[in-house]
Amino acid sequence: MTDDAIAKTILKFVRQLDGGDTEERVLEAAIARHWLNREGYPTPAGLKLIDEFVTMEQVTRQRA
């Protein structure tokens, strides 16, 4: 997955958590959680978050 795709996934997740009425507020919330940096790129914590999502999907598929 590219950094751009990871950032988009993180922003979607933050939007679900917080709502966020503008893209700027959603980005600021992701930055505040240390999932994205000021340039909008995934941080190590953001990469770990997405890695955990992938792990959850794999476990769910194995149980289905």
Question: In words, what does this structure look like?
Answer:
This protein is mainly α and 64 residues long. Helix content is 72%, strand content 0%. It has helices at residues 3-18, 23-32, 44-63. The protein is built from three helices and no strands. It is globular, with a radius of gyration of 12 Å. It starts with a helix and ends with a helix. α1 packs across α2 and α1 (3-18) crosses α3.
* DSSP helix fraction: over 70%
Estimate the strand proportion: under 5%
| SSE succession | HHH
The end-to-end span amounts to: 24 Å
- Number of DSSP-assigned strands: 0
Uncertain segments are none
Structural class: mainly alpha
Give the overall shape: globular
Q: Quick check: average pLDDT?
A: 94
Major β-sheet annotation: none
Kindly provide the radius of gyration, computed on alpha-carbon positions and rounded to a whole number of angstroms: 12 Å
Tally of contiguous helical segments: 3
